[in-house]
Amino acid sequence: MAQLYFYYSAMNAGKSTSLLQSSYNYRERGMNTLVMTASIDDRYGKGKVASRIGIESDAQVFSSHDNLIEMITAAHQENHLSCVLVDECQFLSKEQVKQLTYIVDKIDIPVLCYGLRTDFQGELFSGSHYLLAWADKLVELKTICHCGRKANMVVRLDGEGKVMREGEQVAIGGNESYESVCRKHFREFIWD
């Protein structure tokens, strides 16, 4: 039976690396996968999933308005899919997460989603909210804070490296813009 997985973490925990490894494992066994990523995140080029350690893969992009059932079933008809892997899944809409449950429940294709749980203010992203509610399996990938504790929060940095407390929920960036921290340090930076 196929299941919907949500692999979540703060930044720099290896989400994209894990996704690429999972896709490779399927393909190594002669199975087809569909790697997808949000069109909003083009840090490594449009239609690319890339890891900080240097591995990458082409990916089909989706926007918040795309119908994932149509996209995935078209790919499945072309290349019998054994697995769908979604990077940057925090950018999925509620309806798209519901569509992924359809892919799992009705078409019987496993879907592995990888993304952030919360934004730089500690608030859930829409995609993460519904994946936490509806996924069959929740898996936390871990990274560490500068103090050595588990980092489960993210802070946004301005151009001078200072923590920002306000701003739009989505601002695409990497290590120059974000830092993963433990809740204790998040509290000091944001809440206190």
Provide the fold topology.
Elements: E1 4-9, H1 15-28, E2 32-38, E3 48-50, E4 56-58, E5 60-62, H2 68-78, E6 81-87, H3 94-106, E7 111-116, H4 126-134, E8 137-140, E9 143-144, E10 150-151, E11 153-157, E12 163-164, E13 178-181, H5 183-191
Parallel strand pairs: 1-7, 1-8, 2-5, 2-6, 6-7
Antiparallel strand pairs: 3-4, 9-10, 11-12, 11-13
Helix pairs in contact: 2-3, 3-4
Written overview of the protein:
With 192 residues, the chain is α/β, with parallel strands linked by helices. It has a single domain, classed as 3-Layer(aba) Sandwich (Rossmann fold), CATH 3.40.50. 29% of the residues lie in helices and 28% in strands. The protein has helices at residues 15-28, 68-78, 94-106, 126-134, 183-191, and strands spanning 4-9, 32-38, 48-50, 56-58, 60-62, 81-87, 111-116, 137-140, 143-144, 150-151, 153-157, 163-164, 178-181. The strands form 4 sheets. The chain has a 6-stranded parallel beta sheet with strand order 5-2-6-7-1-8, sandwiched between helices. A 3-stranded antiparallel beta sheet has the order 12-11-13. The protein is globular, with a radius of gyration of 17 Å. It catalyses: thymidine + ATP = dTMP + ADP + H(+). Its main location: cytoplasm. Homotetramer. Its EC number is 2.7.1.21. The active site is at residue 88.
